[in-house]
Amino acid sequence: MAESVDEKYFDELAQTIIDGEEEDCLRVINEGLARGVDPLDAVEKGLAKGINKIGDDFAEEIVFLPELIMAADVMKAGMKILDEKIKAGGKERKSLGKIVLGTIKGDIHDIGKSVVGAVLQANGFDVIDLGIDVDEDTYIQAVIENNADCLGMSTLLTLPLMTMGEVIEKMNEKGLRRTVKVIVGGCPVTQEFADEIGADAVGFDAKDAVKKVKRLLDV
Amino acid sequence: MKGFTGKLVGSLYPITEEECKQIHHAAVRVLEEGGMRCDDERAAKMFEKAGCKIEQDGKLIKFTEKIVMDAIGKCPGDFKLYGRNDPELDINIGWDEVHFATVTGRYIQDFRTGERRQATRQDAIEGTLVADALENVHGLYKSVMWIYDEPKICNSQILVAEQMKNTNKTSTWVYNTGAEHEVPDLIKIWQIAAGGAEVLKAKPHLIGHVIVNPPRVIDVNYTNWLIGFCDAGIPVTAYSALMGGATGPATLAGMLVQIIAETLALVVQIQTYKPGHPTTFNSFNPAMDMRTGLWSFGNPEYGTVGGGIAAMARHYGVPCTGFCICDSCETDQQTAYEKAFKLYSYALNGIALSWDIGGMAGFNFVTWPEMVLENEVVSFIGQYLKGIRVDEERMSVDEILAVGPLPGSYLNRKHTKNWYRKEFLIPKLSNRDFFESWERGHTELQEKAKEKTAKILETQKSPVAPEIQKEIDDYLDFVVKRDTE
Predict the structure, then answer these.
(1) Secondary structure class of B244 (helix, strand, coil)
(2) Among B98, B135, B137, B129, which Cα is nearest to B428's?
(3) Distance, CA of B203 to CA of B372 (rounded, Å)
């Protein structure tokens, strides 16, 4: 394809992220792959460009959480296809870091954690969202399987707080804490509590979480 | 138990329809039995023409209910104030829309230095530009009461000229210096701004104030203005400048009776001079603070009596406007609660145009950051007034069924994206940080307002056509030369 056609294609792909249109995104990806577009280029020049734009607009308060979350969802759906193709082609995609996220066992509050995930994604991180009511072993397993750089745990309730400490203890036992940072967040989480259980940082809101993760991973 | 009892006696209006009739009859009795003192021969002739009984060699005017009701019957139920060269700036003065406008003050706080001082011509320009830039400001009173770096004799002309040169929004005018040429000069400037005398008549861009001097005096100055406004086709608001406990009774019902009597007298005068002329009732009803003698505007009684005036205006089928303002002498919590209560209650009372934005301490103090803050307050009021629109789409049953029960979320849904900006207010200045984020560092609201003011003044340019500005300047040169040489 001529360069100008490529540019137009990648802009179209980025726009599907900005618009939060999953069907369009998948259609454009499949059309591109059929035409021989490099899947790595599709991620870096298309999807990433779109999510970065949404991230910038979110920071500037031009768009807000619904647009951001929708863009992150579409990004995730597009990445699923493209990551497989990239792996199949023997290539590797770079990201700022892999973050495993989840709401801790005993708590089913999903929104805050999802918002943090979307904002992290919009800032160039790969996010593996384990959902809600996540137990210790599931966290640990996901960290190992994904070769994660950071684990994020969240809760809105006070009772499940202590489970966060137990997860960190298990990570210590398995020697994971040498390479994996831990950030915690949620309404009852204080800096004192984070220090007490040995977490590396507290994210007091989504933007703060991104700032802290960037600092922890030195990116 | 002392203090607030929580007994619910209020409603949208502080008086019932039955009580409106009682107030009307009491006001008519005042006009029939006591009448109005009249200090102006031209006014006496107008009242004579209306059929009033003229006593004491033209100095005392007595009315009948029929005269009053004939005059009320001539007032239009609504009318329009026109933005100049921009229909989006038009505002309807009736009972289906409410609008908010700036108010004036004797002193200004320089937002750049924090200094409280007398205002200058540049302040008048800047106040106009800031008001022009704010989306919830629908009209302007003069930015400052007087400008101290220009001759007193033509202060009003300079103030109006600078206002007309820097905004196309609607405006208002209350008698100011009483200088010999004030009335014809200002009318000339308004005519130039409109694009000519006939355009001003067809599409008036301001409303003028005609006021009784309480208790019960029709005076010369306001008769000058009444004639000037009516001849130029400028709608008028007619009212009493009564102060409860000093120039009016110390009961709220008594204040209302006198205000309505005095307003009705003016309505007779206006509608006799120019039948069908657009006219409103108006709220300007301070009560005296009996501890200090202060002309108090921030008191709750002001808002209640204002609501009573609105109820009476509605009873008569005449539109209503009103001054709000607070007593607090700075942008603080007192300013916020005095203004928020009154602006919201005035909006619910259907007062079509409220003059309040930017002003504090009665008519003593204005700041532009306060204007910016009140622009935000009005956005909140607008959201309250929108209420809840109930239709199939907004009831969202399909969406509710599609999402729940948990773990579904509405946050990533097209329905949410399509609706949240239409249904939720996203404030421009108000803090909505998470507590910890706020605690770690934030910009105080007043600082945000100052920053926004500075930003507006860096970028805001006059929307007024250069040829109109030049014509105003040329006329002003003539006025200043005439008055100062």
Answers:
(1) strand
(2) B135
(3) 29
A19 contact partners, CB below 8 Å, separation of at least 6: none
CB atoms within 10 A of CB A32: 22
pLDDT single digits (tens) A144-160: 999 999 999 999 888 88
Q: Which domains does chain B have, with CATH numbers?
A: 73-386 (3.20.20.480), 392-423 (no CATH)
The span from the CA of A152 to the CA of A194, in Å, is 12
Binary contact (A204, B434; C-beta < 8 A): yes
Neighbours of B281 (CB within 10 A): 27
Q: What Å distances lie between residue B53 and B72, B164, B262, CA to CA?
A: 18, 42, 16
A208–B contact, CB cutoff 8 A: yes
Residue B436: which pLDDT band, with cuts at 50, 70 and 90?
Answer: confident
Of B406, B413, B440, the CB nearest to A108: B406
Buried (b) or exposed (e) across B169-203, using 16+ Cβ within 10 A?
A: bbbbbbbbeebeebbebbbbbbbbbbbebebbeeb
Dump pLDDT digits (tens) for B5-63: 555 555 678 999 999 999 999 999 999 999 999 999 999 999 999 999 999 998 999 99
Q: Which chain B residues touch A if contact means CB-CB below 8 Å?
A: 406-407, 409, 411-414, 416-417, 420, 426, 433-434, 436-437, 440
- In CATH, A98-217 is 3.40.50.280: yes
> Under CATH, what is the fold of the domain A3-88?
1.10.1240
Give the predicted TM-score (pTM) of the model.
0.90
Q: Which pLDDT belongs to residue B7? A: 55
Q: Which residue of A has its CA nearest to B406?
A: A108
As beta bridge partners, residue B282 has B321
- Eight-class DSSP state of A104: B
Which of A26, A25, A15, A150 has the alpha carbon at shortest distance from A95?
A150
State which amino acid sits at residue A162. Answer: M
Residues whose CB is less than 8 angstroms from the CB of residue B148 and which lie 6 or more positions away in sequence, other chains included: B118, B119, B120
Q: Do the domains at A3-88 and A98-217 have one common CATH topology?
A: no
> What average pLDDT does the structure give for chain B?
95
Question: How many other CB atoms are there within 10 angstroms of residue A173's CB atom?
Answer: 10
CB contact under 8 A, B413 and A110: no
Classify B365 as helix, strand or coil.
Answer: strand
- Contact B412/A69, CB-based, under 8 Å? yes
CB B374 within 8 A of CB B336: no
CA distances from B281 to A185, B131, B256, B417 (A): 57, 25, 12, 44
- Distance in Å, alpha carbon of A205 to nearest chain B alpha carbon: 7
**Is-contact A123 A210, C-beta < 8 A?**
yes
pLDDT above 70: residue A4:
no
- Encode A187-209 in three state secondary structure: CCCCHHHHHHHCCCEEECCHHHH
**Cα-based angle A73, A1, A125 (whole degrees, multiple of 5):** 25
Q: What is the pLDDT of residue A2?
A: 44
Domain ranges of chain A: 3-88, 98-217
Does B459 have pLDDT greater than 60?
A: yes
**Burial classification of residue B276, based on how many CB atoms lie within 10 Å of its CB (0-12 exposed, 13-18 middle, 19 or more buried):** exposed
This complex has an ipTM of 0.81
Instruction: Give pLDDT tens digits for B295-320.
Output: 899 999 999 999 999 999 999 999 99
